[in-house]
Amino acid sequence: MKWHLGSFLCLGYLGVAWASSTSNVVDSSYADPCAAIANETWVSPQEARKCFGSFPVDPDIKANIIEVLNKSLAFHASVNYQRQAPPPFEDIHEDVHGDLARISSQDYSSDFDLHLETVHALKRLVDGHCFYMNLCYDSLYTTYLPIPLALLTDELGVQHVHVAPEAFKISSTEFGEELKFWQDALPEELRGKLELLSGAEVLSIDGETPFATVNASAVQTGRMQAFGTRQNMFFSSYGRTEAGWVYHFGDFAAQSLPLKDSVALTLRIQSGSDIAFANLPYRSRLSSSVEPWTNASTFWANNCLATNSTNGVNLYAKPNVVVDSGERPQQPFIDPALVRARLRKHHKNELFDASMAQNIELPAEMTPSSPLNGSSGVAQFYMLNASVTDAPTGVLMLGSFSASSFNELQSSLLDGLKNLKTEGAEQLIVDVTNNGGGYICIAHWLHRIIAGPRGTTVPQAGLQTQTRASPLAQLIVKHIAGGADPENLLLYNPLNWEYANNTPIPGEEDWLQPPVRKTVNGVEDMFSQRLGDECQPFEMDPPAEPLFDSNKVVIISNGRCASSCSLFSISMAKREGATTVVVGGKDDVPQQYCGVVGGQSIRFPNIDTEIKASELAFSAPLCRDHTLAPPDFITNSLHGVTWRLGFGIDDPLEPEEWQDHPADVNFPLTADIVNKPVAIWERVAKTLL
Ligand SMILES: *[C@@H]1O[C@H](CO)[C@@H](O)[C@H](O)[C@H]1NC(C)=O
Ligand SMILES: *[C@@H]1O[C@H](CO)[C@@H](O)[C@H](O)[C@H]1NC(C)=O
Ligand SMILES: *[C@@H]1O[C@H](CO)[C@@H](O)[C@H](O)[C@H]1NC(C)=O
Ligand SMILES: *[C@@H]1O[C@H](CO)[C@@H](O)[C@H](O)[C@H]1NC(C)=O
Ligand SMILES: *[C@@H]1O[C@H](CO)[C@@H](O)[C@H](O)[C@H]1NC(C)=O
Ligand SMILES: *[C@@H]1O[C@H](CO)[C@@H](O)[C@H](O)[C@H]1NC(C)=O
Ligand SMILES: *[C@@H]1O[C@H](CO)[C@@H](O)[C@H](O)[C@H]1NC(C)=O
Questions:
Q1: DSSP state, 510?
Q2: pLDDT in tens, 488-543
């Protein structure tokens, strides 16, 4: 496709510049709100919005985004389930195709307004696997307040919203000079004394009771199915990445779009009866990964157009592969067993959550020290102080099921847990706070090595799954079964999958035939047959004995444990009897210990690659020319879907996704332990183990 967006926008801007220069009223630099904030690291949300809002809707771009999403959603297994989710998730009811049709026929005053509508339509699926983003706008800036909040429980057991006790410490370290902006914005009696706000009780937010604001955020934030978890995400929390311990400001104090200008707060300053009123502005900080710009046209050209990773590629369009168009190439002999052994793929099930990517460091005094042997990247091991617990207690902090090396994470988990045993641990806390998932087989592995070889872990330690069998997916599989993926590079290759009885599907099997027809919320849908294990035998030998008694395993988090983290936690809780704990949830709201179970998640480039690459052996019909095939995105867009859904444990005929995962315990956070991992683990161990 030929695309001349740059010239279109330049014309738009020349028009504005021309109009202002002839009238001689407006300085031409002000006519371009993107030029006005070029080179600025910190801007007001309003300034950022003016730049974002200055691009008119381009009908071709609008049609492109709607078409990509509408066609790509055929690969999202949950579309019809999400028309109306069952209790306890009945607040999820989105007809996403209907919403896209509405957006398509509606006029918007700017491309940014259109963008917001599109993002919100997908957020209403409340599914962190199925999202739409455009890096032209989303997370280009992060919009901050210097006062992350926490939901704390007092001595009488009553919960109140507070400014996090560590707020000033974190903000002064992270924001440096910019803090002065907020210091100066405080009312006279507090000016320059931002520190006094740390720990303050929040009596009202924008004139309403704090939980009215928490709820409003929970209604629109998307990502996690449980309402309680979405409330928890309003507050600050911690996490562990490969690089180190991180602090998350939460949805109140860090937002990925510059939509809110300020917040009016009524506060009770700590240990005093003084009531303070503060009107604090939000400030937007430019992401370090953004390409600099000088004016609107370079802003657009550098940040808003598709990059070389936005779309998929034809993996077979390599110089060394001769494609004689129109003719079916000789099919090489492929020994399915050999290919299976050679090409083990590490499929992922994980959230894409821009709000988690800020990498703000947890202050040293809150960070667990001296991790034990086996600790590596996202997996960190500790022993709790013997004086704290009756029985020696080991801790595994697992911040993610993803890592730069699958093998290292796999061996780290085994080495670390074995080492905890050597250190004498008799019970185990697994902290999966803010763990958004990752490798499916690492989830199975961790379950298997903790629980040992049993009926619930061998031959499969996870859930059986199904993928959606849309007409285009069926065509892709038909092509691959006919030889279109000789190197077994594609997801739909039967050589990746096993039947429900855990025997391999042969490479020439058209495995989506016949599709399994199912009526979901009154709509006819089609799925694959049930798929079995994909991880065993593991690439590393698991121990012959359980490493821990699962009844002495406690899994704790803020509820935001998703995807592969859900696969692990659900197996441990429902099959092995592990205890699940949500830390810091609202006491009268049911807490789920995980959500967004999925089965496998993929992004748009994966879908696009399946379509583009599976055409090799066929002159017609080429998948990419099929009327159901999405075109390439022309914008800097990201989109993902749930490609497979795991079947449930309690109800094995329905997806686990919308089955109940009630936490055994909703553990209160007090001012002395909030966001301090060791203090939380010790309190949990003392109380529950
Ligand atoms: C941005 O910075 C560059 C180099 O630092 C400078 O040449 C340019 O004029 C600046 N642009 C604006 C709009 O301030
Ligand atoms: C989405 O796709 C469906 C099925 O192909 C089609 O009927 C519908 O018109 C499309 N909607 C939009 C908004 O393009
Ligand atoms: C927030 O939502 C919960 C759950 O729906 C509800 O029980 C509570 O009353 C709401 N609180 C406020 C202040 O609206
Ligand atoms: C925008 O900036 C680029 C490079 O700095 C320049 O070449 C172009 O003429 C500018 N466009 C407008 C409309 O000012
Ligand atoms: C994609 O673009 C980036 C940045 O321009 C470049 O570093 C990278 O090599 C490119 N990758 C491919 C596969 O072309
Ligand atoms: C940790 O591992 C190192 C190297 O393998 C070993 O020398 C050391 O003794 C181990 N420490 C403990 C406490 O097990
Ligand atoms: C263990 O507890 C003792 C006594 O309370 C304390 O001095 C020590 O620092 C603690 N050790 C760790 C590793 O927390």
A1: -
A2: 999 999 999 999 999 999 999 999 999 999 999 999 999 999 999 999 999 999 99
Pocket test for ligand 1, best of 29, 39, 293 (most atoms within 8 A of CB): 39
pLDDT confidence bin for 388, thresholds 50/70/90? confident
Bridge partners of 467?
644
Q: Which ligand is nearest to the CA of 296?
A: 4
Q: For residue range 604-615, list pLDDT tens digits in order.
A: 999 999 999 887
**Closest residue CA from atom 11 of ligand 7:** 385
Position 421 in a domain: yes
Q: With bands split at pLDDT 50, 70 and 90, how would you rate the model's confidence at 23? A: very low
Q: Is the pTM of this model over 0.90?
A: yes
Q: Quick count: other Cβ atoms within 10 Å of Cβ 442?
A: 28
Which token pair is 432?
């999966």
Which of 211, 227, 591 gets mutated to test ligand 3 (max ligand atoms within 8 A of its CB)? 211
| Nearest Cα residue to atom 3 of ligand 6 | 373
Which of 451, 436, 401 has the alpha carbon at shortest distance from 573? 451
Q: Whose CA is nearest to atom 2 of ligand 7?
A: 385
Identify whether 37 is part of a domain. Answer: no
Question: 557 - beta bridge partners?
Answer: 582
pLDDT digits (tens, 9 = 90+) for 433-481: 999 999 999 999 999 999 999 999 999 999 999 999 999 999 999 999 9
Looking at the structure, do residues 262 and 373 belong to the same domain, yes or no?
A: no
Domain total of the chain: 2
Which of 231, 260, 286 terminates a domain? The answer is 286
pLDDT at 74 over 50: yes
For residue 640, the CA-to-ligand 5 centroid distance in Å is: 21
Domain that holds residue 659: 368-462+538-598+655-688
From the alpha carbon of 373, which atom of ligand 6 is closest?
1
Closest of 549, 571, 574 to residue 441, by C-alpha: 571
Residue 494 neighbours by CB under 8 Å, 6+ apart: 477, 480, 481, 505, 506, 507, 508, 509, 511
Residues with CB under 6 A from ligand 1: 35, 38-39, 294
Could you tell me the CATH number of the domain that includes residue 561? 3.90.226.10
- 385 Cβ inside 6 Å of ligand 7: yes
Report the nearest atom of ligand 1 relative to the CA of 292. 1
Using the predicted structure, report yes or no on whether residue 11 has a pLDDT greater than 90. no
pLDDT per residue as tens digits for the range 230-261: 999 999 999 999 999 999 999 999 999 999 99
3-class SS string, 384-442: CCCCCCCCCEEEEEECCECCCCHHHHHHHHHHHHHHHHHCCCCEEEEECCCECEEEHHH
- Residue count of the chain, please give it: 689
Ligand 3 center to 232 CA (angstroms): 13
Q: At what angle do helices 96-105 and 59-72 cross, to 10 degrees?
A: 170
Map 125-175 to HEC letters: CCCCCCCEEECCCCCCEEEECCCCEEEEECCCCCEEEEECCCHHHHHHHHH
Is 387's C-beta closer than 6 angstroms to any atom of ligand 7?
Answer: yes
Do 384 and 247 share a domain, yes or no? no
pLDDT band, very low/low/confident/very high, at 343 (cuts 50, 70, 90) = low
Ligand 1 pocket test: which of 29, 293, 294, 295 has the largest number of ligand atoms within 8 Å of its C-beta? 294
Per-residue pLDDT, 30: 64
Residue 62 confidence (pLDDT) above 60: yes
Most confident of 318-327, 341-350, 644-653: 644-653
Answer whether residue 169 is part of any domain: yes
Instruction: Please give the Cα distance from 347 to 614 (Å, whole number).
Output: 19
Q: Which tokens go with 20?
A: 């202002």
Two tokens, residue 532: 């079995």
Question: What does each C-alpha distance from 274 to 52, 162, 189, 197 come to in angstroms?
Answer: 41, 15, 11, 11
Amino acid at 305: L
